[in-house]
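Lecture notes, structural biology module. Today: joint structure prediction for complexes of two components.
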Amino acid sequence: MTRTITRRFLLVSAAVVSTTIGAGSMTTVNAAETIKLGIVAPMSGPNARYGGFSMHGAELAVKDINDAGGINGMKIELFNADSQGTPVEGVSATRRLIDQDEVSFIIGDVSSSVTLAMQPVAEDAEVLLLNAASSNPKITYQAGVGGFKWTYRNYPTDENRALVVAKYAAEQRGFTKFAVLSVDSDYGRSAVTFTKKYLPDFKGEILSEDYYKEGEVDFRSVLAKIRDNGAQAIIMYGLADTTPIIARQILELGLAGKVTLIGNGEFNTEKTIKAAPKAMEGAIEAAAWLPQYDSPASKAFVEKFTAAYNEAPNNHAYVHWDTVNLLAQAIKEAGSADKEAVREALSKIKYKSPVGDVTFDDHNQARLPMILLQIENGKPSIKGAYTAEIQYPAN
Amino acid sequence: MFSTLLEQVVNGIVTGSVYAIVAVGMTMIFGVLRAINFAHGEYYMLGTFGAWFATDYLGLSYEASIVVGVLSTVVVAYVVGQLVMRRMVGAPAESGVLATLGVALILQNTVIFVFGGGYKFFSGGYIEPVSILGFTLAEQRIIILVVCLLVFVGLELMVTYSRLGMAMRAVSQNVECCGVVGIDVPQVVLRTFVLGAALAALSGVLTAPVNVSVYGGMGELITFKTLPIIIMGGLGNVRGTFVAAMILGIAESLVATYIGLQYRDTVGFATLILMLMWRPHGLFSTQARF
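The predicted structure, tokenised, for the full assembly:
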């Protein structure tokens, strides 16, 4: 009963959203001279905020490229499809972009579960899927020499993240007792799997392990359990929108200052910290990027984005903006918008991103650093950027 | 060990109170209309959005925002009641399902369209922790508990003594006879519906400070948590709804503590299935009675 209804809810809202968006992106550019780029992102549902930032980031990059005369004279035409953050809708969105909008390049999705479902679709259609924001290692374990020839990822993985966070928490902060409270998804679970792989190296142990569903609002039971088992830190690979709720309930249970959040989930935004400053103090987060990152290109992006949309960009805005620019350079180096040529160019590219030089390994995974930060006096403070070469399992 | 158990039971009762205030409206609407209101969670969402708008845009205090949230929902519910709900008297069951699902979609997407799909941050309320029985609880949760008790005592008095309450009971027992003795059935339906929606909105506003996030899709989850409660309580049964809401709240809390948070959302329907196997007509009776 509920299943049917939920699905109907989703279908109808998808129809409503896609019609509106479809109508909005209609342009009169001549098809022969344009590069069709599709963005799959959660434009509605619990992760809609991520989708909004992703789209804004991509739009900003496309506008700049087109205003500067395009790539070798070709303009980029942007298409958007809503994944609602669910694999089912993500696959439909991808098919819609491929079959109806006839795009050659797709950037998407934010959620790892969705990206994993999109990979075979892009592979079948031989469309270049360039992921900008999913961190599950499996995505590129099974790409390049691992299988999917058309998947590339310009985003660091959970493996890198888990290692960096665990190492810092153990070595710099001296934590040994951990509790897990992560989102129940491919992202949350894989990050914890990799944390477990590395934690014994730092003499850390996990005392309890819980996963929450998207939309969960009551964490009191789990937090009470964590209070009683005496964990020093909560390993949280969660959703940005849930972090303030958890922080507030940490405060409510009198745990603020006694247990530290470590992991990822936009711990560093003003909104999250404001929800419960005492609970967020000392929190450790590893992010692919954050607005405070100190490089001229990064600062310039923050300024431009803020001027365009009246709000500071988040990580998703940045990675989508950066990935559009990366794709543009690949097309430029390929000399044409031919998919195969662009793919070849991408494999060999040396791209200068605001966080450092980007190259791809034989699994089509970009070598990128993770930025580590700690909340100090209510403000994020950057502790360094760490790169790790991924050790792929032998297959 | 025992104190953890006690704490979790109290947690469950607080969660149950939230469910109870929402579910009682839904069950009363079922009583007079014989239709499940699938848009019920949307009124919870509307109330929360009204209050969020009042504190964030108008700069009102939390107390004032409760009034704004509930009143704005009452206005919307009145319009929906006039246009949709009162026409459902005597209509076949499937038209009720379609109509309320349609209303749910319209309300939800209108809110997303106007305010955007992202999460909003609710800043009002009393979130300072207080210590009772050896553990801490936000003040807001105590308020929720007290309001829940007041609501149920109030409803009990209303359906027993007031004219509207008696009319509601009459309509839920026999619509035809009500027509014969001159009770304005559509009017009773409309009032019951507005009252039910207002209670859902109240529940939303009261929970907003502890749930922090406000977004367009938040009502859906509430509708589906409420559904097993009103079936368990016996459709149309106010007291049964209260008990069922408490059972579900406590069961969820214990499952989250001793089995795992990821199983929490399965509790509602699992409890429902177990209960239906044991008592197929609901916990109390088949009779819809207030």
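Point to remember: Residues 159-287+371-386 of chain A form a domain with the Rossmann fold fold (CATH 3.40.50.2300).
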